[in-house]
Amino acid sequence: MDSVTSSVDPKLLELLVCPLTKGRLTYDRAANELVSEKARLAYPIRDGIPIMLVSEARKIED
Question: Does 26 map to a domain?
């Protein structure tokens, strides 16, 4: 599986939480991001690795 088409392991998704709110994350396949609705942040996934740093997250605008 190459890094361009790789997705996040579903088991990993169950374990990961938003580092800010400790809330649940949802996987946005189109943007290749993990989204925290509560914190209004989207964490990028690079080469199949979620970057769980608030400083790296994209703010979600209304």
Answer: yes
The whole-angstrom separation of Cα 62 and Cα 51 is 23
- Tens of pLDDT, residue by residue over 5-36, are 456 788 888 899 999 999 999 999 999 999 99
pTM over the 0.85 mark: no
On whether residue 3 sits in a domain, the answer given is no
Q: Which residues contact 20 (CB under 8 A, 6 or more apart)?
A: 36, 39, 41, 54
CATH number, domain of 47, equals 2.20.25.10
